[in-house]
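User: Can you write out an input/output pair for a complex, sequences first and structure second?

Assistant: Here is one pair. Inputs:
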Amino acid sequence: MNKRTIYINNLLVRNTGITLFFITFLLVGCVENKDSSGLEYMPDMYRSPAVEPYVDYAEIRNKQNPELAKKLSAKTPPIGTIPYYGTDKELVELMLPYKRKPGIEFQQTHGLVDYVFSNKNEYELAANDKINPIHIDSTNSKEIFEEGKKIYSYMCAHCHGEKGDGNGPMVKSGAYTGVPAYADRKDLSNGQIFYSIYYGKGAMGAHGPLINKKEIWTLVHYIRKFQDPEYGKKDTSKVEQSNSTDVEIIKDTITVNNSM
Amino acid sequence: MNKSFYKTIKPTAVFLSWFFVVSIIAFGSSSFSQEEEGQVKIDGKSLFKSKCSSCHQPHKDGTGPKLFGAKNKWEENAMEGSIYLWVNNWQAAAAKDPYAQSVSELKPSAMNPFPELSKAQIDAILDWVDEQPVPTKSNDSLANAGPGGEEEEESGNSLIWILLGVSFIVIILSVGGVRRQLSISLKEKEGTGDGKDKLTYTQELKALAWKYRLQTGLISLVVVLSIIVYLFQTLYGIGVVEGYQPSQPIAFPHSVHAGKNGIDCKYCHNSVMKSKTAGIPTVNVCMNCHKQIQGEDEAKKEISKIYNAAGFDPTSLYSPGKGQPIVWNKVHSLPDHVYFNHSQHVVVGGIDCKQCHGDMTKMTETAKVWPVKELNEIEGNIKLTKPTLTMGWCIECHDKKEVSKGSLDTKKDGYYDEIHRRLLNNDKELYKKYLKDNKVSVKELGGWECGKCHY
């Protein structure tokens, strides 16, 4: 041992107080709490009693106030409330509440609560709704398909696949099964496609709460394109006229359902 | 710490990929033989996939019950041939056969009739289903152990450090004590020390400090300076939330959803294009997929929390009632006096989520506020220096980010092109000044005005 090390030794040993101080400092520095957002001044500006999204209004500074909860919390609007969409007649009509109700079984199979239910088989009734309220012809089809593609790619493609073949990334990864290719369901009417997107069908959940009616009708056009590459290039009035024999079959099902 | 985590995961990853290859070979070969036979026989697999798989799976209940062993069950319990009638037209079968009647009450939804299927085809489907091996625990559950293991390691680490520190202090103290006792008793033994010579601890320290006054002075200076620096650092840290990662009621991994399964951010955060807030998905959004995806092991535990929230019974696939809402902890939060709008940045500004929220597709844990250093490492991001979510961060980006490049000749009739045109028509000098760096930044459009961000 030379002099120097002895000296350091002495320093360490003698100045226990200072050493202790440093060590606690280091230790405090090392321990990091991810659950703490750090020091804040004006914390009530971050976690405030003001009406903001995702704020539990009833909780102010860790205390629950049930009275406030009743007054301020996010509540579902009264039944029958409709949003305001401006004065464009076409848009407003498009956005009016959907005339078809979910079947009573949707309460259990699709977790739809707080809806007005119907005890008819409305999915089959929807086969009558042949007309897509967004008119399409060769002049505007390009825009509609572009818009549809955009919505489709973030809403549906992970299940149905970018090409509509039922082979989205979720199906490919093996986590999810049972997604049909649109081409296999060519006989669906426009109304049924809308109904299935809006309220769900079988394994598919309801997407009505996620996208609005204009977007859904745009998607219906876009899905038709998967089924028929020629879709949108010609006049659609022909498609609307065909299948008129279906109506009688559907009348039968109504009576069956009513008698049940 | 992350690196060491990946090191420990490596052998498991190698094992997993080996497992994958082996299972692919095993499964692949079985499906091959299937297809070869399909030339002669009817291809039950593709029939099942196209007609039945939207409701049925071989081993899991979905909209319809699992089909594995269904044929045997029907042969034992039902009238002969009744299963074919069932598939062709279940209503007819239910009317004829009491067993079919009981089956038809299994599920709330009804099966489609398949009148086009022949007896041989139905046999092929059901035989194919019965050939499917019972799935073993999938290797995903092993991979899922990842994040959990990491957490353990981390908390273990800090505990070790604390223990080490404490024992270090104890050793120093005891050594010092022993030394002191030794020297005192030595003096006593030598008889040199009388009562006055016995210095107290503090007296000894003082004497020492005087003896080494230069060193003591230096050390105190360093200590005082570092305390001041530390104080300033904490002051600068006030209101900086980088790295904030509150614990969440459900261990929700973005990597599994947005990464591996390619779900777009906007499916879940679906108001991000339309409004100020991005939105946290409601339980019904989770249920759109998790009605079917029930998970295994750890994942199952987490996913069952969604079922509690939705009031959903995973065995019968019923939702008998309402559940308890999931209360997520808010991660990103700006104070009340700031206005921030998502649709303005994402739609109008055309900024990718990863510029501000990092690469969520690789986030195996719950969401956090990404420190600006990590954000800068992501390809394509504008490099910023100020901590994320502070005012400096917003300002810096508004200075650097252009709203549109180039001069008027290249403009058409978009929103920003119109702004360019108005600028040019009103004040040519100003416009030239703005375009010196060949771009109009957000700042130059007023992105630095207090009133734009502050109420």
